[in-house]
Amino acid sequence: MTTRIMIASSVVTAALLAMPRQLAAAKEEINVFSVDFGLMFWTWILFLLTLAILSWKAFPAIAKGLESRTARIEDAIAGAKSDRDEARRLLDEHQRQLDEARLEARGILQEGRDAGERLRAEILAQARTEHEALLEKARKEMAREREELVASVRRDAIDLSIAAAERLINERLDDEGNRKLVRDYLMELG
């Protein structure tokens, strides 16, 4: 509605301003520096009338529109500030969580390294224990085999000694007696 009033007042003003030009065109001579007080009077009347109509209808609507636009802009600015603050808060929260995740990852890596070191130490200790057990078993086996070998050599030596003594003496003693005799002799020697 205010647009209609503005258009109507503009048309009236243009029509009134065009009339003196038509009158001036009718005159043969136009003086640019002459002042027409009647025209000036009606121009001021139309200007004030247009100003009054605009002040009564158009300016309040324009002011209301500007105020609502200002309010929307202020709300948008406040919303943008709020969004920026929220974004900063979220960024700080994300950064804090990222730092915590890094610390946790470092802790997990350190725990893994420590567990690896412990496992390595356990494996080395177990290997040493097994190595020592195998060495001890081998030593015992070697000692047993050496004792068996010494006993076998003694038996063979006794048997050879008995055979040699039998040939020398040409008399036959019983096996057990011969063995005892040679054993006693070897005990005396060694």
Descriptive overview:
The protein has 190 residues and is mainly α. The protein has a domain at 141-189. 91% of the residues lie in helices and 0% in strands. The protein contains 3 helices and no strands. The chain has helices at 2-26, 37-169, 175-189. Helix 1 packs across helix 2 (37-169) and helix 2 crosses helix 3. The longest helix has 133 residues, at 37-169. It is rod-shaped.
Write the layout of secondary structure elements.
Elements: H1 2-26, H2 37-169, H3 175-189
Helix pairs in contact: 1-2, 2-3
H/E topology pattern: HHH
Number of strands: 0
Helix/strand/pairing category: mainly alpha
Number of helices: 3
Tell me the overall shape. Answer: rod-shaped
The major beta sheet can be summarized as: none
Query: Distance between termini?
Result: 142 Å
Helical fraction equals over 70%
- Strand portion: under 5%
Mean pLDDT, to the nearest integer, reads 81
The poorly predicted ranges are: none
What oligomeric state is this? single chain
Radius of gyration over alpha carbons? Answer: 65 Å
